[in-house]
Amino acid sequence: MLTSKTRLFAGMFVCCILALSAENSSAQSFKLYVGNSRGDDISVIDIASLKVTGELKAGEHVHGVCVQADGKRLFATVEMDQTLRIIDTSSQQTIGSVKVSGRPNQCAATPDGKYVVVPIRDKDSVDIVDVNQQKIVKNLAIKEPHNALNTGNNRYIYVSSMGSHEIDLIDLEKMDFVAHIPAGGRPRPYVVSSDGNTMYVAVADLHGFVIVDIPENKVLEQVKIPSEHATLRKLEYESQDTLTHGLALTPDGSELWVSSLLDDAMYIYDIKAKKVTGRVSTGTGPNWIVFTPDGKYACISNTDTDDVSIIDAKTRREVTRVKVGKVPKRLAVATAVVPRGKLR
User: Fold this and answer.
1) Beta bridge partners of 117
2) What local confidence, expressed as pLDDT, does residue 29 receive?
3) What is the pLDDT of residue 28?
């Protein structure tokens, strides 16, 4: 039998735990990082307020952005001086810079932040950078590389080869390629299902995507999405063979969201039903898409209107468009811990 005094102390203990939980919860928020490809900065959007709360200076012509899992460090590839910048997201200051071997494209970081893989477009190679040592520890040959992708694994990172029409898998323990996966065309962005078995690839000259079986190493199907416009307008910031430049799976894996440069919109493809179930208009030139970790928002960069469309994923309605820097392209989203001194 609990005494009144024991019950009182138990109640106080529970209240303290709840208070600490609430404090920890309030200390975290989602941050969206927007690489401005014709500027020298990365815009920071606070997802709670849907407003720009910072501009991270990185260098002229930011091409790629990625972030380690805990959100503490952001990585950006800069074309002008051919560097990988290491940025502390709390102080919003550059804490390191690594000279890479050529013109860098979209990077990818391991969740622990130990390695960042940087495709080098003009040298037909990919640099593997050790972040703590701030140096290239391996350079691998790959024909016309473009986008690197990490799927939550500290050992493996994918890199697309536009020249070989494939997606190559790097084993960071072996420091070498261990798989060459057919893309069904000249690959643009691509995503992988959470079980690692299926890859969805946007390819040149296709308004849609290709479905690839990873274990079987073969193309299963090409999905062409009907468009409202038959021809593509003159693109200022993308090649004319690019009809789709953004793909993202919802966090639960039930839907694939596909950007349309033909229609300036996102098309929503139901994975189980195998059909398009929705369409949402965006700004002009939808380029890259990411979902917030909770699945609430889809965020799309619009190159021609210098803004980001924030779409409520459940209602499939654009909530707002946030003005950012010049020609936004690559995006990264993470949970960032707010410095304790800034808590209210």
Assistant:
1) 108, 128
2) 87
3) 55
Distance CA 62, CA 76 (A): 7
All residue ranges of the chain with pLDDT < 50 are 1-27, 340-344
HSE on the CB side for 316, CA within 13 Å? 13
CB 47 within 8 A of CB 292: yes
Structure tokens at 259: 């950007």
Joined together, the tokens standing for residue 218 give: 């073969």
pLDDT for the residue 14: 37
Which two tokens mark 270?
């139901």
Give the SS3 label for residue 127.
strand
Q: Report whether 97 contacts 85 (CB < 8 A).
A: yes
Name, in order, each residue with C-beta under 8 angstroms of 49's C-beta and a sequence gap of 6 or more: none
Q: Do residues 308 and 300 lie in contact, with contact meaning Cβ atoms separated by under 8 Å? A: yes
Reported in sequence order, the residue ranges of 68-217 that DSSP labels E, i.e. its strands, are 73-78, 83-88, 93-99, 108-109, 115-120, 125-130, 135-141, 145-149, 156-161, 166-171, 176-182, 187-192, 198-203, 208-213
Alpha-carbon separation of residue 179 from 19, 67, 119, 151, 300 (angstroms): 49, 24, 17, 15, 30
- pLDDT of the residue at 322: 98
pTM of the model: 0.90
What per-residue confidence (pLDDT) applies to 186? 98
- Long-range CB contacts (within 8 A, 24+) of 337-341: 337/27, 337/28, 337/70, 337/71, 337/72, 337/90, 338/26, 338/27, 338/28, 338/29, 339/90, 340/27
Residue 174's Cβ-side half-sphere holds a number of Cα atoms within 13 Å equal to 9
Q: Are 284 and 236 in contact (CB under 8 A)?
A: no
Full set of structural domains in the chain with CATH = 28-338 (2.130.10.10)
**What type of residue sits at position 174?**
K
